């Protein structure tokens, strides 16, 4: 559980279009890494390369390497499905299966991996995952209700429960709070802070206060103009990025003097 990711000279393409250029960074285990930067600079694209979700788009590919505890995720013979089991993902809009029960939503990923669970094992896993996602107390009396019966913030925590039920090493989150109200956002931020004890967390956020609140390290991506590739401009401890960045572009972005 909780592994290190070493990204080495990663270039990310959509067909001929180089969307993200030459990223090298180490993402530490048991920590939260935030990715910030203006819209279109490639944060989501880069994030999706970390669990090989990028390549499901026709023509999409990468060059370079991403190693998890030393093993290249893009090495020959590596099964992308296995990579996605080890590196889970939570999306911008909560996407529980609406008609499926809360309990079955938690188990959906596990079942997708063809694991057959006994009744007791299932119940255990549902409880453990929902507790891990800070949702158990709110739903324990209505586990058979549909996922869509929950509020947006609860649905997002249900999606986090579903992601951690498969016991991943890393959890990627792409703007997980952008569709949520401020109270639900704080609940997710508290949860992210707790999850880092067990997982490596990488979160894309357009909310700089959020990056400052939840993350240990922050990567600032930027783009020189439309059609140009996004680049990792600066990557450092979060307090350094926000109080004393080394790069002038970072300084302009975090102080709000940007486009
Ligand atoms: N499926 C796709 N096919 C082609 N280009 C894409 C696709 N998704 C994103 N892009 C392009 O890649 C660049 C980075 O986009 P994205 O990763 O979504 O940025 P961000 O998440 O930082 O807003 C943009 O130029 C965008 O238009
Ligand atoms: Mg994005």
UniProtKB/TrEMBL annotation:
<dbReference type="InterPro" id="IPR027417">
    <property type="entry name" value="P-loop_NTPase"/>
</dbReference>
<dbReference type="InterPro" id="IPR003593">
    <property type="entry name" value="AAA+_ATPase"/>
</dbReference>
<keyword id="KW-0813">Transport</keyword>
<keyword id="KW-1278">Translocase</keyword>
<dbReference type="InterPro" id="IPR017871">
    <property type="entry name" value="ABC_transporter-like_CS"/>
</dbReference>
<dbReference type="GO" id="GO:0005524">
    <property type="term" value="F:ATP binding"/>
</dbReference>
<dbReference type="Pfam" id="PF00005">
    <property type="entry name" value="ABC_tran"/>
</dbReference>
<dbReference type="GO" id="GO:0035435">
    <property type="term" value="P:phosphate ion transmembrane transport"/>
</dbReference>
<dbReference type="GO" id="GO:0005315">
    <property type="term" value="F:phosphate transmembrane transporter activity"/>
</dbReference>
<feature type="domain" description="ABC transporter">
    <location>
        <begin position="5"/>
        <end position="254"/>
    </location>
</feature>
<dbReference type="InterPro" id="IPR003439">
    <property type="entry name" value="ABC_transporter-like_ATP-bd"/>
</dbReference>
<keyword id="KW-0067">ATP-binding</keyword>
<dbReference type="GO" id="GO:0016887">
    <property type="term" value="F:ATP hydrolysis activity"/>
</dbReference>
<keyword id="KW-0547">Nucleotide-binding</keyword>
<dbReference type="InterPro" id="IPR005670">
    <property type="entry name" value="PstB-like"/>
</dbReference>
<protein>
    <submittedName>
        <fullName>Phosphate ABC transporter ATP-binding protein (PhoT family)</fullName>
    </submittedName>
</protein>
<dbReference type="GO" id="GO:0016020">
    <property type="term" value="C:membrane"/>
</dbReference>
């Amino acid at each position: 559980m909780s592994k290190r990711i070493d990204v080495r000279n990663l270039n990310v393409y959509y067909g001929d279009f180089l969307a993200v250029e030459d990223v090298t960074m180490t993402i530490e285990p048991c920590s939260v890494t935030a990715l910030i930067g203006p819209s279109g600079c490639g944060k989501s694209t880069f994030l999706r390369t970390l669990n090989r979700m990028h390549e499901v788009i026709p023509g999409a590919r990468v060059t370079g390497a991403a190693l998890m505890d030393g093993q290249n995720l893009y090495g020959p013979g590596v099964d992308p499905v296995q990579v996605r089991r080890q590196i889970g993902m939570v999306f911008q809009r909560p996407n529980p299966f609406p008609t499926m029960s809360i309990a079955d939503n938690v188990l959906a990923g596990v079942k997708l991996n063809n694991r057959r669970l006994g009744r007791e094992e299932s119940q255990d896993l549902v409880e453990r995952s929902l507790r891990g996602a800070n949702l158990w107390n709110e739903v324990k009396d209505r586990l058979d209700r549909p996922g869509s019966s929950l509020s947006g913030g609860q649905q997002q925590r249900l999606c986090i429960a579903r992601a951690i039920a498969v016991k991943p090493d890393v959890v990627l989150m792409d703007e997980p709070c952008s569709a949520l109200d401020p109270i639900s956002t704080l609940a997710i931020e508290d949860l992210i802070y707790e999850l880092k004890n067990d997982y490596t967390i990488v979160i894309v956020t357009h909310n700089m206060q959020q990056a400052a609140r939840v993350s240990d390290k922050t990567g600032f991506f930027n783009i020189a103009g439309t059609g140009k590739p996004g680049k990792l401009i600066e990557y450092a401890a979060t307090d350094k990025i926000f109080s004393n960045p080394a790069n002038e572009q970072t300084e302009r972005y975090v102080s709000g003097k940007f486009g």
